[in-house]
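Appendix B, example 12.
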Amino acid sequence: MTLDAAFERISMPLENPFTIARGTQTAAENVIVRITDEAGTTGVGGAAPAPRYGETAETVAAVLPDLLDVVERVGDPHALHAVEAEMAGVVNDNPAARAAVSIAVHDLAAKRLGVPLHRLWGLDAAAAPATSFTIGLDDTDRVREKAAAAVEAGYPILKLKLGTDRDRELVAAVREAAPDARLRVDANEAWTPREAVRKSEWLADHGVEFVEQPVPAKDPEGLRFAYERSALPIAADESCVTLTDVSAIADRCDIANLKLMKTGGLLEARRMIAAARAHGLEVMCGCMIESNASIAAAAQLAPLLDYADLDGSLLLAEDPYDGVDLTGGEIRLAERDLAGTGARPS
């Protein structure tokens, strides 16, 4: 079988500047992959590279020709295991680049069979949890306004970025604007272990569900310290990058947070979910700020999750792709029943 592959870099403006403890983003640089079979059916995938993990749009573009050569050499979009295994052998790092190709191949394979990807996996669309909507760091009044706007738009679960000397003030502002919302917080490695324990106590008083990555990933014992003493469950994100990390964090957190841009592919994401379950962890799937070209694929995993944080496309002012309907935070996998991941040109 002949497969034709191509890719392009895109820059998408954000609706609002997005700030976390590590910096501010005003646009998202993604790389879109398209793989087309002899019948003209096209699978679409997206890479959302993160400098935190050593990737940029430039590095993705540099390795994609080698990765797409793998797809053309394998020549069968249904040989998903072979494609992902050979890509990992060709490019060991660059997980976002490999994820984009994995997503495109999965999308093509499911489209060729005429089924949504979650159905190909035998998953129950009704089991998908709702996604949270993220409120980035900002001045206090602006955070309050963003929280109020998110609730008014129908999002019942908010995730607040923290990691400043105004953390208590920001949480209070969100609770003022959204007293009934389910609330999660993410420090993005900004706290010390002892600070994480202290803050967990008053965060619990504000009805926060859990704390994501309170301490630096380079401090695994600090993560254990926070986990053993925290008043709230702990989710590991930056500490949970690859499959081998799952066993390492099993006694240091309650929730494993995987992202397709960290795992390097959908098959590896499913392996990480299974490994987390085997270790008694709950599972969340998060995202970068991404086009629906990749968010739609992550949404297909939702029935396997306890928590979803798949709002990356919702933060964009413009996206060249539509995807799974996430209005109001509900992941509506069955509503349109589109073949493949559900990503399609907008």
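The first strand starts at residue 4 and ends at 20. The chain has two domains: 4-114, 119-345.
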